[in-house]
Amino acid sequence: MYQQQHNPASPPLHHPVPQHPIPPMRSPPPLQQQGRPVNSNPYLPQGGAASGYAPDNAGNGYNLFNDTTAQVGLQVGRNAVLAGQEYVEQNFGRFMSLSMPTLRSYFNVSNGYVGSKLLLVLFPWRHKLWSRQPKRSEVSGSVEGFMPPREDINAPDMYIPVMAFTTYILLSSILAGIKGVFHPEILGYISSVAFAIVIFEILGLRLGCYLLGISNDSQLLDLVAYSGYKFIGVILTMIAGALVSGYFVKYSVFLYTFAANAFFLLRSLRYVVLPESPVNPSSMNTTSRQRQRRIQFLFAYSFVCQFVLMWMLAKS
Amino acid sequence: MFGLGRLFYVILLLVNSIAVLSEDRFLARIGWSSAQIDNSGFGAPSDAVSVKTRLINLMSAVRTLMRIPLIGINTVIILYEVVLG
Known about the structure:
The complex is a heterodimer. By secondary structure, chain A is an all-alpha fold. Chain A folds into 2 domains: 2-38 and 53-95, no CATH class; 108-315, no CATH class. Chain A is built from 14 helices and 2 strands. Chain A has a two-stranded antiparallel ribbon with strand order 1-2. By secondary structure, chain B is mainly alpha-helical. Chain B has helices spanning 4-19, 23-27, 51-83. The interface between A and B is medium-sized, with 22 and 17 residues.
């Protein structure tokens, strides 16, 4: 996009500067002659009607020359501003991965996606293909990023985690209200606990990624999204515990949702932790020992860590 | 029990515990000094670096970077705990 805008602007800078001003010179005078009688009526009595053409034309030429230089200047300035914007956006996207288009693509969901993703998180056993679909640019066909969640069920989204997080807070205050111990402080308390758990999890994940040398181009937001899917299981566990009085149902629901979530994370985070290993094993020089260690880390994260965190969330 | 404030305390204490380690009195004795690992340059493939080396790098980075901010943060937290805790 930037190159397409840049190319028409660069020739006038180099050689056809004398050629370019001519088409604007022909076309604007009618505009200005139409504009003159309205704007510069006070000048007409001074110069007269007959002799007014020559100075008018000279004036037009002078204005036009000014206009072309101004146009070129404007265009250069606009290009510079655009380049600056793009630069800032790129760098923010690379370092913080929080630029608005990146964030927006996480919320690019449809009803069908949300439904099938919920089903996938709760019943991941029969799902076969877990790799994300690469997004190819329409011009060159090169791979740039991944498809948005609307078109790819394996893509992580932020809609479900955010909604599940909110639902978790509201649901636990409703349950507290049913028990009769609701207090306005409980909202802040529960959300603080949930935030702390999510942040703790992401920090641990980042630390593990750093220690194991996993350079994940898939950004931090992917990890945030994946860590948010466990709220679905927690919500179901809390609902089951509220509806049925016995502990057996609650714990069996908890165990099932935990296992499903762990399996889902194990499969989904595979492409983050073990990037492209089956496709070209020669280019990624991960030794078998490193691979083993990464698999252990993935297993420990998605089973042990998730168990503790989901337990803490479902209990409070 | 485990809210955001607690999490902040945990992180702060962990960073404190890393920053308080002495380079030549403690770390060099157990072989965790950052001077002992050979920094073969930034061009080295990142996969070849072991976990221990990364840990040592992280610790030395924390000690270098967080020493001065930690003084301020600790002072504020101690004052807060003394007055309001």
